[in-house]
Amino acid sequence: MTLVSFPPEVLKLIASELSDIDLCNFCLVCRIFRSVVQDDQVVWRAKLLSIYDEPSSKVPGKPYDWRRVYQLRQQIIPRGVLRTEFGTGNLSDAEVLDVIWDVLHDARGYKSETKEITGKNFNILNALKRPDHTLGLLEGRGNNCALAAAVGVLMTPLLQLPEEKDLHDLHTMVYSTPAVSFDGYPQFQVIWALAKYFIYHIHKDSGSDMLYQKRLMQPNEYPSWWEGKLSDYVGPRHKIPSKWYGAYAYAQRTIRPQLRDLSDGPLVDVTLSMTSHNEFQGSGSDTQTFTITHGKISSTKPDPTLRYNGVWKHIEFRKYYHSHQWTYEGVMLPGNNMILGHWRPPGTLNSPDNFRGNNGPFVLWAVPEGSTIAGRDDRLGFPR
After folding, report:
1. Where are the domains of the chain?
2. Which residues contact 378 (CB under 8 A, 6 or more apart)?
């Protein structure tokens, strides 16, 4: 019996196990082999699911083009998006962004005891950490800046280190523009500017010593991917992790005149708990102890240029010290494991008239239960 005489079902199983190059050669052998691969979606579905998580964009009862999705991803993901390749070849910038966006949204994470996230898509994305890959440098590319910024924000756990010179271009947004517009829409370019700003100051390889306590963090306490899938976080009932680290900053204008970033140094160590379906409270410490009150989570308005809008959340709360208080407002990213926004003096929340005077950026990110900075030796961590 020759291979050509095998039943089509067996040939499809064989084809599904071949590498991409071998599959191309398989199709060139004869018309029978080519039709086995090209006539339906069985081989392409098997190949995609052997590498990637189940796609979220499938619509029940409607055909799904497994072949096109697989081939698009294989053009982009395995070799990364190199700066020299971006926008070249047969794919437009918009197509590249759409593919990366779908891979991010489809990612399904499973949390281990060390807070490492495993899953097919996450393993592929983690492989793109090499410095010659530039998935974190997509701002302003293509026709959809919102999508480029949203992709960049979701890639934040890769913690690619921005260059110090790039920070000067971020300051206008970081210090003066809200992460959620006053009419309720997420400002993706601002959110990404905030993410890059704090990546620079928190990254273990950064020369910044603004947040000296970053040296006390364990490897599993840095920002991480979300657990589960993003669709788990869509809906009117909101969830929030209980344990967070964070940081905030403010700026002084020097004689030059340039903005000089400052911080009180310690990381924020905070515990939060939901009190209703969309309200929370908490307590924590940085330079002093504080309490969190008036915490509220709500859905942002959907950006018409993006899919999967329901996972971006508007978040606001009050931070009370013994003698003073501050208003915090921003956006909780998809996956509910990072919050980016601004602090400012107390007043009416979400009011353009109140976004003036003393203010600055802040970040909170979820860390494993039981984590705490308290009691760690920071004698070597004082600012130089």
Report:
1. 165-366
2. 212, 213, 215, 216
